[in-house]
Design goal:
By secondary structure, the chain is mainly α. The protein contains five helices and no strands. It is elongated and about 105 Å long.
Length: 141
C-alpha cells in the first residue's frame, strides 16, 4: 500500500517538474492460476503428522515414565528376587459395568463432536454437497 502511494507521489513530482517521461505498460500482468504460498496440502499433511505424533507421545510417554511395577518380570528385574505367589487382577461385575458405561459415553461424545463438526462446516462454511463436488472436481474423481 505504501509503495503504491510513494510511486504515485514520485510520478506526480516528475510530471510537475517536467522531467518525467511517459510510462507505458509493456506487458499486461497475468492472473495467477494457483497460490504462491502457502502450500495447503503440505500444511495439512504436516498438521496431521504433528497431531498424530503429539497424540501418540501423549499415550506412550506417561507409560514410559511411570515407575510402577505391573508384571512378574518387572518385579524380578527390579528387586532381583522371584515372588512366591502372584495374585491375578480380577474385575468385578460393577467394574465391567462402569467400563462399558465409560466406553458408551466416549463413543457418544465422539459421535456428537463428529456430527456437530460436519453441521458446522455445512452451515458456516459451505454446504456439504457443494464441498464434496468441489473436492471431487479437484481430485478428478
Amino acid at each position: 500500500m505504501w509503495s503504491k502511494y510513494a510511486e504515485a507521489q514520485l510520478g506526480e513530482r516528475l510530471e510537475a517538474s517536467q522531467k518525467g517521461e511517459r510510462f507505458e505498460v509493456i506487458e499486461q500482468p497475468t492472473v495467477p492460476t494457483e497460490p504462491e504460498r502457502p502450500n495447503r496440502l503440505l500444511v495439512l499433511g504436516l498438521g496431521l503428522v504433528m497431531a498424530f505424533g503429539v497424540g501418540g507421545a501423549g499415550l506412550v510417554l506417561p507409560e514410559m515414565l511411570d515407575p510402577s511395577i505391573r508384571s512378574v518380570n518387572q518385579l524380578t528385574s527390579g528387586l532381583g528376587i522371584r515372588p512366591l505367589v502372584v495374585i491375578p487382577f480380577f474385575t468385578t461385575a460393577e467394574e465391567r459395568k462402569i467400563r462399558k458405561r465409560r466406553q458408551f459415553l466416549i463413543f457418544f461424545v465422539t459421535l456428537i463432536i463428529f456430527v456437530s463438526s460436519i453441521a458446522s462446516v455445512h452451515f458456516f462454511y459451505m454446504p456439504i454437497d457443494v464441498l464434496v463436488s468441489k473436492i471431487a472436481q479437484r481430485f478428478q474423481i
